[in-house]
Amino acid sequence: xxxxxxxxxxxxxxxxxxxxxxxxxxxxxxxxxxxxxxxxxxxxxxxxxxxxxxxxxxxxxxxxxxxxxxxxxxxxxxxxxxxxxxxxxxxxxxxxxxxxxxxxxxxxxxxxxxxxxxxxxxxxxxxxxxxxxxxxxxxxxxxxxxxxxxxxxxxxxxxxxxxxxxxx
Length: 168
Fold this sequence. Notes:
The protein has helices at residues 2-18, 30-37, 41-49, 53-56, 69-73, 77-85, 87-95, 105-108, 160-167; strands at residues 62-67, 98-100, 113-115, 121-127, 130-133, 136-145, 148-153. It is α+β, with helices and mostly antiparallel strands.
C-alpha cells in the first residue's frame, strides 16, 4: 500500500510542479478562470453554443479536462463547424470533458477511468509521469476555480459514438 501511494506521489509531483498555472482557490468560477487564461476561447464559444455556460458557473464542484484553442485547431474546420451546429452532439462532447466533483491531479494519477457528466467513462492512464485522458495528454493541472478545478489537455476528446458520427 505504501509503495502504491509513494508511486502515485512520484508520478503526481512532476505534474503538479510543472503546472505553471497552478494557483490556490480563487473567487473566479470555471468560466471566468478559463476566460482569464486566454487560451480557451473555442471551448468557451462551444460552451455558449451548447448553453452550458450557466452550468459551468453553478456551484459544482466540477473537474474540467479543458482543451486549449490549439487542441481545437487540430480538428478540421468543417468538422468543428458541424459540431458547433449540432447542439446535442456538442453538448455530449463538452460534458465528456467534465467530471462531477473536484478531482486534483494527486487523485487523477491514481485513476484508470472516471465517469463524466455525459454519463460515459473516460479512460485515464499514467505512464512515466505523463497522464492521458483518452488520447489527450494533460499538460497543466490543478488550476483552481471557486466551483472546481481545471486540468488542461492538448486534444479534444470525443465519446466513441460522436467520433464515429464525425468520421463516418
